[in-house]
Amino acid sequence: MAKIRNIMAGRWGIIGAGIFIGALAALLQKFGNPGNMGVCVACFERDIAGALGLHRAEVVQYLRPEVMGFVLGSLLAAYLFREFRPRLGSAPIVRFVLGFFAMIGALVFLGCPWRAALRLAGGDGSAIFGLLGLVAGIWLGTLFLKGGYNLGRSQSTQSAAGWLMPLFMLGMLALLMIFPAIPGASKNGVLWFSVKGPGAMHAPLLVSLGAGLAIGFIAQRSRFCTMGAIRDFVLFRQTHLLGGFIALIVTALVVNLLVGQFHPGFEGQPVAHTMQFWNFAGMLLSGLAFCLAGGCPGRQLFLAGEGDGDAAVFVLGMVAGAAVSHNFGLASSPAGIGPYGMQGVAVGLLASLFIGFSMRKKMA
Amino acid sequence: MTTTIDARGLSCPQPVMLTLAAIKAGEADEIIVLVDNEASRENVCRAAGNRGWTVANLSDQGDETRITLNKG
């Protein structure tokens, strides 16, 4: 007997998810999030690393509630629809390293695939180079997939293991409630806060959390994934997920136009630089690493919410990568790439290629 | 001929890749795919449908689903 189909997994479900996320992301900017950064998983995890004091880049420190909402919203959806599956054991250290370098690439470009889309929707022409890099990186990743690359099977485990990442998110949410942002203060209790720069720009806590929960819920149901959108098209000529990604861009563009947030051009775009080769190369690295890890940074959070411990390890890798990125001067700023950004991308590509060439296992 | 694919514990896109490889091999008129998560079930059914195969049966065994795909 066939199960009742998951409506959100259909063509209109994924497009609806893209429309919903695109609209909400543009509105979050209206509510206070940084320009073209209504939702950016890489940027927000980097801000979280800063809020926890793992790096001391003063302009990017804030415990972003959207990220917690993503995981917890997905957890809620997974429980409601009986899809919570605690599982782990598919090459966790490899996933950590991929997350680590995916973040380094994203911070050279200044954004994850979600933000690349939002930057484009806000009129930032440099995003085109990032998106081209993303496609190129994912294409490279599909060559490895075709050549037999895979990270092996996961095992089912106790529920507690699947709960660890959601509990970590709840713990951070509790910290933010106990030590909220105080205007003009760079620290409250154990948390660090930006007093200027993008880290100081944020929507009210409950708005951010609510948006994150809603996106997490809908993305879990629809399997929304920006990397998968491009990968499935390259690999199978399948446009299912791509529909969602394009819907996000178009909707964010329309909402930006409606609320006066569309400013076409290359120069002077918010939290962006115009070193186009490095915009391309940063996202090339990110795209490859996301493809080898099987999901964009958002998807990894949603998977972590439904009990995937390997996706949770990838998330931790991204947080660690963000800390190192800023501590080592790998991350870009509006002035251009960091002093060691080039080396960061080169090492990341070498590490990803090493993983791509070496992780093979016959499955069938 | 029936081909059976064990895609349990594998995450996207592996279950789809294995299924499409079996379709492409052209030896089977029935393919059985074992998956253990909903996303894989949806993805395998969608990909097979796009290749003109039909989902003849879905049977749940605990957390696992056994997908039976038929040619044409």
Automatic annotation (TrEMBL), chain B:
<dbReference type="Pfam" id="PF01206">
    <property type="entry name" value="TusA"/>
</dbReference>
<comment type="similarity">
    <text>Belongs to the sulfur carrier protein TusA family.</text>
</comment>
<dbReference type="InterPro" id="IPR036868">
    <property type="entry name" value="TusA-like_sf"/>
</dbReference>
<dbReference type="InterPro" id="IPR001455">
    <property type="entry name" value="TusA-like"/>
</dbReference>
<protein>
    <submittedName>
        <fullName>Preprotein translocase subunit TatB</fullName>
    </submittedName>
</protein>
<feature type="domain" description="UPF0033">
    <location>
        <begin position="4"/>
        <end position="71"/>
    </location>
</feature>
